[in-house]
Write a structure and sequence with these properties.
The protein is of the alpha+beta class. The longest helix is centred in the last third of the chain and has 23 residues. Helix 18 runs antiparallel to helix 19 and helix 22 crosses helix 25. The protein starts with a strand and ends with a strand. The strands form 8 sheets. Strands 1, 2, 3, 4, 6, 7, 8, 9 and 10 form a 9-stranded mixed β-sheet that branches. The chain has a 7-stranded mixed β-sheet with strand order 12-13-15-17-18-21-22. A 6-stranded mixed β-sheet has the order 28-27-29-26-23-37.
Length: 948
């Protein structure tokens, strides 16, 4: 998915270097100098420039080129008159402070990095016929709810439900109330009276500037961007001309454009934040920060003197107070000699020792020019930077530009547009910069400042944007950020450090040669200590320090400590609860995770909660996991595995504690016996040995396991087997654990084994049927259950469409699990973004099943598989990919259950005939000697425990 950016001319040449992006994925250009193309013409210019650059000037037809791939176009090449502080680098690269309520963000995030994920998600969801998305670079859009399906149409536009007063300042999509998803016509900045007149029969959505275009729509847009002879581009607006020609009753008659089909979609849970002016820079950032006010969800503990106060990539050597409201300090040094007021945007100021008073409403910007120059650019908080210099209404620093010049005894050259007026002097050292800034801002009598201003080369706002040394600008920002890192870490109690993307932070520490911060004390919050150890491990690994494994193990150890701590006070008193000749028989189905898998895994579920849809199934008509517990005559514990042909006799606690060997046939029953109270750590009684405890218990134990399913199946085998052992022991030993407690202790058991894992496997098998499982945050993960109708599995027209195929490929989930869990520990923005999408996807699956929509269900299973692959590529080895490709024409969706990598393949066929074709294909040419179909059916009982 390629990104095409229209940028200020000066940024084009350095964009890839500054942003560390690849040329193949990001194309940049600017509108031709001096030309006014409008948003439609600008879109055409951007597409044409990219086509020519890609094809080396060859005449590839536009239609063929448009169809090659999906593209996101961002228009960010404006002059930024009302936000001068970010004009040279473009508003699209405006640094945005980390949200106080969010995890996984980067200290270096920009407006571009924040807005892009939504556009990418829209394009992934869009039909294959829509290859082009056009959006504005100076807005941040959020959707707090999942995106709806995107229909087939030539033009798809997103809008927001807003107050009519706000709509009068934007474009508006108007739809008939009887057909709300179809455009009737579009208006540009309609009056309140006009909207009021329409309200009885129509709905209206505010245009938020996100348009999806078919190739046909793009071709027509390009055609209309040229003069009739097709030889020269002209000014053409996407919104006020192209848009007004769309809909059932368009405002502009144009036979070709009127014929385009149009769909209007409200952005679900949509929020719109404009970053077009200095005031909006602060107000939009404040609004986003205040989206969450619940203090339990805000990780930093700092209380600012005023909420509208933002400092980043900066060094401030004086205290800020409540009087300093509407304050933005970025990429700047504020020394002890500065006196600040309110309504300031301060950017680009190098390290200095100035004594400087900044009046209310005045902003300070310093722009690096050539290799060593600094341009002083003060301006007013609300200056529009428009108007003739001779006009008394033209503002500079919040007052008439003529008054400003008269007060300082200087004359200004005539200029029809203040944006082109040479007002800003270029200084050769920081001292001169400070003197001239003081003279321009607050000390008109300062003769040294006036002299510097008169003798210096002076530049206009436009020239500054054209000639700014952006590499110096970004290098200064990076230097300030490097100084901020140690302070953020040291002040972790009040900073956002441990909620950041710590993988990114670790890379920044290593790249900057920064020393690791002091380790957190033992009384620090447990989850913060876990994050800290994994952060330290990542820094050490990147630095080649062999101690990294020790730090990583410490993080996992603390997680185990937190989970086992939830039952630390619940010591067990096992007692013989059966007759001496009885056998306790436990048996369980396995599970297929349909959506939301991985969101149940610690530590993610502990700070975000999880949503999982899964189904309990029996194989070949039987629950495949079985456990038998009976009394033994001697005071020891005998463990047997029927499927593995193994036996072990345990006589000591140390032998019972030896449960951490991955792949050992008896790790699970040993850990289960430990949790049942047969080692001192979990026992309410006091004994000198296991033998003494078993004599007091009344007998030894004989535990026999049968897993009638291959290892590494992906069906939750190990977790559900553990739950089955715990369930059987609970009955045998009179522990009275219900299914919820069994599920919880299984989660702890897997932590004891060091294999990790979440809660959905055991609950998926212990609890019967088809269900949505959900938890909230915290170490106590006790899922709530919403049972779902089983219609899509049991009705004859659908039952045959569910296929389960054993691939014959084995794998251990531990390696895949460990890598993903590391990402969770590190607040990896990539991992957290995918997991958040998986949580929302589980709710989509829940809704599809409730609706009885089989086609949607199958496609959502396919989406689950795509999400799993995005989270870890190891999920889908080449052999599995080849297998899926053989049957994909007959499927709605398929996936490897669990962590993937091998095991079983769950297939949702399009219809019963397609299911037969899949069976014929894979039976005639099996994947390998062990590959086979296995009959699956819903389990209506889950875990069962009975006695002989």
């Amino acid at each position: 998915m390629k990104k095409l950016l229209s940028l200020p001319p000066n940024l084009v040449g350095s964009f890839h270097e500054i942003t560390h992006t690849g040329i193949s994925d990001w194309f940049c250009t600017s509108d031709p100098v001096g030309a006014r193309l409008g948003s439609g013409g600008g879109t055409t210019w951007l597409l044409e420039a990219c086509r020519i650059a890609e094809d080396g000037g060859t005449a590839v037809p536009v239609q063929e080129w448009l169809a090659k791939e999906k593209r996101i176009l961002l228009h960010a090449g404006g002059q930024s008159r009302r936000l001068p502080g970010y004009a040279p680098s473009g508003k699209i690269l405006t640094p945005v402070p980390v949200f106080r309520w969010a995890r996984g963000q980067k200290l270096s995030q920009t407006l571009l990095s924040l807005q892009l994920p939504l556009y990418e998600e829209i394009m992934r969801k869009a039909p294959d016929s829509l290859h082009t998305l056009v959006a504005s670079g100076d807005v941040y859009l959020r959707n707090s709810e999942p995106l709806q399906a995107i229909p087939e149409a030539d033009v798809v536009c997103y809008g927001l439900w807003v107050d009519p007063a706000l709509a009068t300042r934007h474009g508006v999509f108007v739809s008939d109330r009887k057909a709300p998803d179809q455009l009737d016509f579009m208006l540009q900045k309609p009056s309140l009276d006009e909207l009021g007149h329409l309200a009885g029969t129509h709905l209206f959505l505010m245009d938020i500037g996100v348009w999806l275009l078919s190739d046909r729509a793009v071709e027509l847009l390009m055609k209309h961007s040229y003069t009739p002879d097709g030889k020269q581009m002209k000014e053409y607006d996407l919104y006020s001309e192209f848009g007004l020609a769309l809909g059932a009753h368009p405002r502009i008659e144009d036979e070709e454009l009127n014929a385009l089909s149009v769909a209007i979609l409200p952005l679900p849970g949509g929020e719109f934040y404009h970053y077009g002016t200095s005031r909006e820079l602060i107000s939009s950032t404040l609004a986003v920060q205040n989206l969450v006010r619940d203090q339990r969800a805000i990780m930093q503990r700092k209380v600012k003197p005023h909420p509208a106060m933002f400092v980043q990539n900066a060094e401030v050597c004086r205290p800020l107070t409540a009087d300093n409201s509407e304050l933005w300090i970025e990429n700047s040094f504020i020394g002890k000699g500065w006196t600040l007021s309110d309504r300031h945007v301060i950017t680009g100021v190098p390290e200095n020792d100035w004594t400087f008073r900044v009046p209310s409403g005045v902003c300070i910007d310093v722009v690096p020019v050539d290799s060593e120059g600094w341009a002083a650019r003060p301006y007013g908080f609300n200056d529009p930077f428009k108007g003739d210099m001779a006009d008394g209404e033209t503002l500079f620093m919040g007052r008439s530009v003529g008054e400003w010049a008269s007060e300082r005894g200087v004359s200004l050259p005539a200029c029809g547009d203040i944006q082109n007026a040479p007002l800003f002097p270029v200084c050769r050292n920081v001292d001169d910069l400070g003197l001239v800034m003081r003279w321009m801002v607050s000390e008109p009598e300062l003769k040294e400042g006036r002299k510097i201003w008169e003798e210096a080369v002076r530049m206009s706002a436009n020239r500054l944007s054209d000639e700014a040394d952006l590499r110096r600008l970004f290098a200064q920002r990076e230097a300030f950020r490097q100084k901020n890192w140690p302070m953020l870490a040291a002040n972790h109690d009040k900073s956002i450090f441990y909620q950041l993307d710590l993988a990114d932070a670790a890379s920044e520490f290593v790249a900057g040669g920064l020393a690791l911060p002091e380790a957190l004390p033992e009384d620090a919050p447990l989850m913060k200590r876990i994050h800290d150890h994994m952060f330290r491990a990542r820094v050490m690994r990147l630095s080649g320090d062999s101690r990294c494994d020790e730090e990583q193990q410490m993080a996992f150890s603390l997680l185990r400590e937190g989970l086992t701590g939830t039952i630390a006070d619940e010591k067990q008193s096992p007692h013989l609860n059966v007759y001496r000749d009885q056998i306790v028989w436990g048996r369980s189905p396995v599970r297929i995770d349909l959506a939301g898998g991985w969101t149940d895994t610690p530590p993610y579920c502990m700070y975000a909660g999880g949503n999982v849809v899964n189904v309990a199934i029996e194989l070949n008509g039987q629950p495949p996991l079985q456990v038998y517990v009976k009394p033994a005559n001697e005071p020891h514990i005998i463990l047997r595995s029927i499927d593995m042909g193994a036996r072990e006799c345990i006589s000591t606690w140390d032998e019972l504690r030896d449960f951490k060997k991955v792949g050992s046939p008896f790790s699970i029953p040993k850990a289960a016996l430990a949790l049942a109270g047969f080692i001192p750590e979990f026992s309410a009684g006091r004994f000198h040995s296991l033998e003494e405890q078993l004599k007091a218990f009344g007998c030894g134990l004989e535990v026999t396991l049968l897993a009638a399913i291959p290892a590494g199946s992906g069906l939750g085998t190990s977790s559900i087997l553990a739950a089955t052992v715990l369930g059987a022991l609970s009955d045998f030993c009179g522990l009275a654990w219900d299914k919820n407690e069994i599920g919880n202790r299984t989660l702890i058991l897997e932590q004891l084994l060091t294999t990790g894992g979440g809660w959905q496997d055991q609950y998926g098998g212990v609890l019967h049927g088809l269900k949505l499982l959900q938890t909230g945050e915290g170490f106590h993960q006790n899922p709530s259950v919403r049972w779902l109708p089983e219609y899509l599995f049991t009705e004859p027209e659908y039952r045959a469409c569910h296929l389960l195929y054993y691939t014959g490929i084995t794998r251990t989930a531990k390696d895949i699990l460990a890598e993903i869990v590391r990402g969770m520990f590190l607040n990896s923005g990539t991992h957290l973004g995918l997991l958040s999408g998986m949580k929302a996807h589980a709710l989509d699956m829940y809704e599809a099943i409730l609706r009885g929509d089989f086609t949607a269900y199958g496609k959502l299973v396919g989406k689950t598989w795509e999400q799993n692959k995005a989270l870890d590529a190891g999920t889908n080895p080449p052999a599995v990919e080849r297998l899926i490709s053989r049957i994909q024409d007959y499927t709605l969706g398929c996936k490897l259950p669990g962590a993937g990598g091998g095991g079983y393949l769950y297939i949702v066929a399009k219809d019963p005939e397609a299911a037969l074709q899949i069976r014929r294909l894979l039976t005639a040419e099996p994947q390998n000697g062990n590959a086979r179909f296995v009959e699956m059916s819903l389990s209506d009982k889950g875990l069962q425990v009975s006695r002989s």
